[in-house]
Amino acid sequence: MTDTTRRRTFVAAVVGTVGSLAGCLGQSSEPSAENGTETVENMFADDEDDGEPIEVNGGEDEEDDDDEDGENETDDVTVEEDTDEDISTEGTVELLADVDVGGSIDAGAYVLLRADAEVDGSIDAGEDVLVGTDVEVDGPIDASNVILEADAEVDADVTASGDVMTAEDVEIDGAVDAGGAVDLGDDTEVDGDVAAGGSVTTRADVEIDGSIDADGDVSLGDGTTVDGDVSGDSVEEGEGTDIDGDIEEDDAADDDSGPFDDDGDGDGDDDDDGDDDDADE
């Protein structure tokens, strides 16, 4: 059963993220009256250097030195039409809906891919990556936090220094490695291991063709299948879960630690039987 409360929360989070990213990205293609620089730039209106990465603020340009500091302020890129070029910028990158990028994206800040966009290469972002509905990414994603909306597909690994979060029906044909938490929506498929520096949560009918290794708690939703081992501080299973490997919980059930807990089992004695009466006399 779909968790509607979580779905509303997810949508709200995505909307908030989109709003924040939209605020970071310029929304006007006209020069600013204050500094004379463009806030949005169509990078592919006049492609002359086929096969070369497109770099924004990659070098000094007298036309860009209109602000007081002499620095280019047009780092944010909006991709409005298909291109075979790589995209490289120190700022944000936004792909509009249905746009196909035949290369990779390397951004110093956020990357926002709107619905039905496609990236044939990798995405490397200095900040968050938001992948919209029905978006396809053929290469790996490496970012601070990664959010994948419904029906998104990633044909390689997803790596984040923070959290990885998906909506329903997401496909990841690789491993998921997060420094924070991992939250996988209903019917999500991961063709690899899931590793998290925090908790791992799966919703209903999630399939993981690998193991789960979490430094926090693991919560498996109804019908979740895991082809490998599952380890975490604690492991909670919903109805109909199927784990092919072993389950390892790091949190000891015995809380009666004492000053003579020499065997490390928390029972206050130095023997492995857990019985204080059979300690060395």
TrEMBL record:
InterPro entries (UniProt xref): Trimer_LpxA-like_sf
Spans annotated as Disordered: 22-90, 178-281
Low complexity bias spans: 217-233
Acidic residues compositional bias, start-end: 44-88, 207-216, 234-281
Secretion signal span: none
Compositionally skewed regions (Polar residues) per UniProt: 26-40
Protein's UniProt name: Polymer-forming cytoskeletal protein
Native organism taxonomy: Archaea, Methanobacteriati, Methanobacteriota, Stenosarchaea group, Halobacteria
